[in-house]
Amino acid sequence: MALGIASCDSTPKLNENNIDDVVAAMTLEEKAHLIVGTGMAGINSGDSAVVGETRSIVPGAAGTTYPIERLGIPAVVLADGPAGLRISPTRDGDSATYYCTHFPIGTMLASTWNPALVEQVGEAIGDEVLEYGVDVLLAPALNIHRNPLCGRNFEYYSEDPLVSGKIAAAYVRGVQSKGVGTSIKHFAVNNQETNRMANDAQVSRRALREIYLKGFETAVKESEPWTVMSSYNYLNGTYTSENPELLTGLLRDEWGFKGMVMTDWFGGSDVVAQMKAGNDMLQPGYNAQYEAIVEGVRNGTLDESVVDSNVKRILAMIVRTPRFKGYEYSNSPDLASHAALTRSAASEGMVLLKNERKALPLQSGIRNVALYGCTSYDFIPGGTGSGNVNRAYTVSLLDGLKNAGISADTLLRDAYDAHVKSWREKQQADTGRFAAFMPVHLPDECNFSAADLAAQAKASDAAIITIGRGSGEFLDRESSNFNISDVNKAMIADVSRAFHAAGKPVIVVMNIGGAVETASWSKNADAILCAWQGGQEGGNSVADVLTGKTNPSGKLTMTFPVNFGDHASTANFPVDIKAEKDMTIGNKGPKYDRKLVDYTPYEEDIYVGYRFFDSFDRDVAYPFGYGMSYTTFAYDDAKVERDGDKLTVSVTVTNTGDRPGKEIVQLYASDTQAGERNKPEKELRGFAKTAELAPGRSETVSISFDINDLASFDDTRSVWRRDAGRYDLLVGASSRDIRASLPVEIDGAEIPVPDILAPKAEINTLRR
Ligand code: BGC
After folding, report:
1. 566 is catalytic
2. Is the previous residue joined to 115 through a cis bond, with omega within 30 degrees of 0?
3. 434 vs 348, which has greater pLDDT?
4. 127, 476, 635, 766: which is deepest, by most CB within 10 A?
């Protein structure tokens, strides 16, 4: 009897239910290939033209996995990133374009304090991921804003882990609702760019548990991301990608993560250790890694069952992807509706820092403004590096105002064009290999004579000054990126003098990715709007807020310090250190000669951001959680109820002003014995945002949390310790504007957890 060909061939083809059979049918070489990805040009092997992207399948994506046709395993595509999908906008021999929507930077999304909105943005990004044929988005990024000078803070959410975790979870839910994956990154403690591939972050177990890991825990538990990306750095002496305590003990066993872990691009060095730690995939992959796996199994240092587990988790990810399911993507997502969404999301993330003499919203008679600051004309949509997006356009502030019917002084515009042009001509082009990825340099500001300013003040109805700051991957911000130069301060003072003499308002718009210095010049502005970097519609979004079409309702997710040196972390942050940039493979291995470059002791411990400023009673420029509105809100009837281990605080918020607006309510808990117990004075335990309330209307918001969230981590015994005693639950409009205080008595408890991630070096931690 003749047998059919199909029944002769026992090779399984991958499906959701036969992963074990497929792994059993794979050769060792196939397993090693699947683990290491398909590589990048110039680095051992690969097919890419430029670092940071591959060319096959979806040009400009950051990575692809290795296809194995005989087993029905397709190559799947991984692409950045946090502010929108990053792929090449054009392709060789193809007249079509593949632009993606540049959404607001992560910090700005978080500043909305609106998880539902962030989820909607996630859905739109997920739709672009799906329709452009990508399978996994390399986002969100939720490292803590440990210090304002970290070059990638713009991608990250907050100095507070609760905000970070909740916003990340919303983003993941949104993206993944489209049937594509996410990769929450960078796990963990990647808080500086300086020597990021070889820096050892030395952190107490307490600071890890309470600050640096907490947001990831929330995101994993509340949104089940398909993948996690391990970070570049060492953590307490071990590369995160090589650390079984982090990737298996904590992430999988303690938190229940079921997905796959991949490295950051070229991260880690000991492949066998990475496999054993549970770092399943190595991206973008290079030959030496492939060889290390094959060799490790052959010489017995790597058990093939470990490799099998890694491969199974990769296959479990692959079977979920649209590419595996044969989804026919359109290459034409709905960019017009996404542009409308990014415009409104950006206006909701702006933070009004100051508003005197009713400078904002601009009065209806204001039709012609004098626009100062180079970035007014060249608005910064986001940061650089892998967090950038290849957008079709960026709306400048000039154009945004014009679209709103407000024109700008043309002589001034010509002066700025000339200033920027002559500055550019003097710059030496960066011809380095990573030039396209590096933060853009901006010219310093220019000054105008008193006579010119007087004429401009006479001819215009108001002055708008933009302060712009760029930053990006690979480099930390220099102190000059935080500080405002003398030339710039003089310009603000001169403009203010001239316009105030003419009885006209002066408004400062900050087009920034992280906190900058404000204390020395804020007195010269009638209004200050922190407009962040709002993506491609940035100028329109700012105009919406300036004209009052949108009432600002964002609040700061980080402290604006008076000086960056006021943060306790600055004592151990590489300020203005020009270290070599370890951006390629090699040049690794822990070296302990250069403090803050080779290793960084986190001596401020848990006292990050407002936890430091409030516990040690320091002045700040603008506190965590702060942000104004064009209307005012009253808080009434604050109550707390306890149901078992759940505490629920409710408060009625009433719009007492004359415009519709939304309010963000924050709930902090303060242990009345915090000082003696070496705990932060207060810690955020929840937040809620009202719907848009018409004048006179009220909404009662409720914020719940588990009493175990009051626990702090006791390093010495590896327990979460819920101290007994009185806690005050503080209902605030910001961390320093507390509207109600509700006492609760809490009984003590201890929750033991595995004792892992111990520092190898002594850390001289700050105490109250
Ligand atoms: C970044 C990651 C990014 C990856 C791929 C790395 O340089 O740290 O955040 O996802 O590149 O582009």
Report:
1. no
2. no
3. 348
4. 476
